[in-house]
Here is the input.
Amino acid sequence: MILPVVCLQCEKPLCAGSCPTLAIAKNSKDILVVDDELCIGCKDCMAACIYGGIVMDPPTGRAIKCDLCQGDPVCVKACPYAAIVMLPAKPDGARERYGGIETLSSSYGLVKEEA
Ligand code: SF4
Ligand code: SF4
Here is the structure.
């Protein structure tokens, strides 16, 4: 199985909750992004994200993550096999059909089930 490591735009983002400077927040397009001006490079968000969806940018010493290309992801357009699908943020038929990341994660043992 190939499981891409990318930010999943969590509904309850652990990265944002861990950030001491509130540098991670939704922009006007409802996309979670990192504010370079506020990031101090503490790496708390990296430690908090259980999906490996946020990393440090060595040249700047600040956090970087997928920003969905501002709503029009290049990876989705570039894949000739349509293997990458951008699902709506809100639960609907498509999300239910694919199961969502919570289902995938628990299926492959990436997240410990709550008792
Ligand atoms: S960086 Fe991690 S915790 Fe934050 S929104 Fe992306 S996947 Fe979720
Ligand atoms: S590295 Fe930047 S974005 Fe991440 S928790 Fe620290 S200040 Fe916030």
Q: What stands out?
A: The domain at 14-107 is CATH 3.30.70.20 (Alpha-Beta Plaits). The chain has one domain: 14-107.
